[in-house]
Design a protein that fits this description.
By secondary structure, the protein is an alpha+beta fold. It folds into 3 domains: about 5-85, Elongation Factor Tu (Ef-tu), domain 3 (Beta Barrel); about 90-240, Threonyl-tRNA Synthetase, Chain A, domain 2 (2-Layer Sandwich); about 270-385, Roll (Diaminopimelate Epimerase, Chain A, domain 1), CATH 3.10.310. It contains 8 helices and 20 strands. The chain has helices spanning about 5-10, 85-110, 135-150, 225-245, 250-285, 305-315, 345-355, 375-385; strands spanning about 5, 15-25, 30, 35, 50, 55-60, 65-70, 80-85, 115-120, 125, 155-160, 175-180, 185-190, 205-210, 215-220, 295-300, 325-330, 335-340, 360-365, 370. The strands form 5 sheets. Strands 2-3-7-6-5-8 form a 6-stranded antiparallel beta barrel. It has a 5-stranded mixed sheet with strand order 16-17-18-20-19, sandwiched between helices. β19 and β20 form a beta hairpin. α5 packs across α6 (about 305-315) and α7 (about 345-355) crosses α8. It is elongated. Bound molecules: zinc ion. Zinc ion (ZN) binds near residues 95, 99 and 192. Zinc ion (ZN) binds near residues 95 and 180.
Length: about 400
C-alpha cells in the first residue's frame, strides 16, 4: 500500500487528516495512507511539523511509502498533520528559484545544471561549464530576477514520459512524469515542491562561484535568505567603511591603496633593518679585539629584534674580515653562527655536532648556520665550545 503524496498536487497544503497504515514497535516510525510531509529527496530537505501532536523529526522516502520519524510514540489510528509552513515555503522558494536560475543559465550560455544541493544557509548548483565570468554571473542574476518580477505562472502537469517534450533535461524515467513548468521559460521533470508564480520566489542572489573539478558551483539564495545575506554583507562593508572613516563606495579603492602602501612599507622596513644590521655588525666588530692570529670572536646575547635580528647581524658579519660571530636568544633557546671566509671555520660543520651533543639540532652553510637546544644551559655549553 503506497502513501498518497498530497504535496504532488498541492504544495500549499499544510493541514491534513490521515490514517496510520503502519507503525514501528516503539511507535515513533509511522507510515500513513496520505501525507503532505515532503521527504528528503532531489536535494530538497524534508518538512518538519507535527503529526498527532508529536514533532516530526525526519521524513524518509521509502519508495512506495513515506516514513515519518517522531519525537514521541504515536498511538492513534487517525491523525492530524501540520506542516511547518515557514520552513516549507522557504524550501519552495529556493527550489523554484533553482529551476529558474538553471533555466536562465541554459538559455543564456547553454550551461546545464548537473546537480543541486539545498542547505540550511544557502543552496548550490553545479554547472557543466569550465568557468563563468563575473559579467556572465551578473547577467544571469539580472535575467533571473527580471523573470521573478514578471510573476510568471509555475504549473505542475502529469505527462507521459514517452511524449513529454521540451524538457530542459531528459528524464530517464518511464510512465508518468511530473513536469514543473515556468511559463515560456522552463519545463523540468521534478517531484519537489514549488511556488505557483515566480514572484513568490522573491529576490535571487548569486553570492559565489567556485570551480569544483571541471565544473562551476554557484551559491545562491532566494527570498528572505537573499535579503538576510545582503543585509549582513552590507553591515560588514559598513563596519569596514566606518573603521576607515570612509563611505562604503570608497572602501574598495581605499583597501587597494592601503594594500599597496603596506607592501611598500614592509619592503622599506626590510631595507632599513638590513642597513641597521649592517651598522650593528660593524659596531660590534670594531668593539671586539682581535686575538694573536688576528681573528675576532664576537658573542651577542638576546639583541632587540630576537632571532630575526640575529640572522641579519650574522649575515652582515660574513662580509667582514676574519671574524667568528655567535649569537643567541633565550626563548626559544636559539643560536646563530657566522664565519667570514678567511676565519678558517665552517659554521655549519662546527655547529651541527655541538648541538647534536646536547640533544639539539641545527646546521647550515660554511658561512652561516643556526639551530636550537633544549635549554639555555645546554646552549651556553655550545657557545663556550665555539669560543674555544
Ligand atoms: Zn523542482
Amino acid at each position: 500500500m503506497s502513501t498518497e503524496r498530497l504535496y504532488y498536487s498541492d504544495s500549499y497544503l499544510t493541514r491534513f487528516r490521515a490514517t496510520v497504515r503502519h507503525r514501528s514497535e516503539d511507535g515513533r516510525r509511522v507510515v500513513l495512507d496520505r501525507t503532505a510531509f515532503y521527504p528528503t529527496s532531489g536535494g530538497q530537505p524534508f518538512d518538519t511539523g507535527r503529526l498527532g501532536g508529536r514533532a516530526v523529526t525526519d521524513v524518509v522516502d521509502d519508495g512506495e511509502t513515506i516514513v515519518h520519524l517522531l519525537d514521541a510514540p504515536l498511538l492513534e489510528d487517525e491523525v492530524d498533520g501540520i506542516v511547518d509552513w515557514s520552513r516549507r515555503l522557504d524550501h519552495m522558494r529556493q527550489h523554484t528559484g533553482q529551476h529558474l536560475l538553471s533555466a536562465v543559465l541554459a538559455e543564456l550560455y547553454g550551461h546545464q545544471t548537473v546537480s543541486v544541493h539545498f542547505g540550511a544557509e544557502y543552496a548550490t548548483l553545479d554547472l557543466d561549464a569550465p568557468e563563468l565570468t563575473p559579467d556572465q554571473l551578473r547577467e544571469a542574476e539580472r535575467r533571473a530576477n527580471a523573470v521573478v518580477m514578471e510573476n510568471r505562472p509555475v504549473s505542475v502537469t502529469f505527462e507521459d514520459a514517452a511524449t513529454a517534450a521540451g524538457l530542459r533535461k531528459a528524464s530517464d524515467r518511464s510512465g508518468t512524469l511530473r513536469v514543473v513548468t515556468i511559463a515560456d521559460l522552463d519545463r523540468s521533470a521534478c517531484g519537489g515542491t514549488h511556488v505557483r508564480a515566480t514572484g513568490e520566489i522573491g529576490p535571487i542572489l548569486i553570492r559565489g562561484a567556485e570551480r569544483v573539478k571541471k565544473q562551476v558551483r554557484l551559491e545562491f539564495r532566494c527570498g528572505l535568505r537573499a535579503i538576510g545575506r545582503a543585509r549582513r554583507d552590507l553591515e560588514l562593508l559598513s563596519g569596514m567603511a566606518a573603521a576607515a572613516s570612509a563611505g562604503i563606495d570608497e572602501v574598495g579603492a581605499l583597501f587597494e591603496k592601503q594594500r599597496v602602501e603596506l607592501a611598500g612599507a614592509v619592503s622599506e622596513r626590510r631595507r632599513l633593518e638590513e642597513t641597521l644590521h649592517g651598522y650593528r655588525a660593524g659596531e660590534l666588530y670594531h668593539q671586539a679585539a682581535p686575538d694573536a692570529a688576528g681573528r675576532r670572536t664576537i658573542v651577542l646575547r638576546d639583541p632587540p629584534g630576537g632571532a630575526e635580528a640575529l640572522r641579519g647581524i650574522a649575515q652582515a658579519m660574513t662580509s667582514l674580515g676574519n671574524v667568528l660571530f655567535v649569537g643567541t636568544t633565550a626563548t626559544p633557546p636559539t643560536i646563530v653562527v657566522a664565519a667570514s671566509a678567511d676565519a678558517g671555520v665552517d659554521a655549519g660543520q662546527r655547529l651541527k655536532p655541538l648541538l647534536a651533543g646536547v640533544g639539539g639540532r641545527g646546521g647550515g652553510s660554511a658561512r652561516i648556520a643556526q639551530g636550537t637546544a633544549p635549554s639555555m644551559d645546554q646552549l651556553d655549553s655550545v657557545v663556550a665550545a665555539l669560543r674555544g
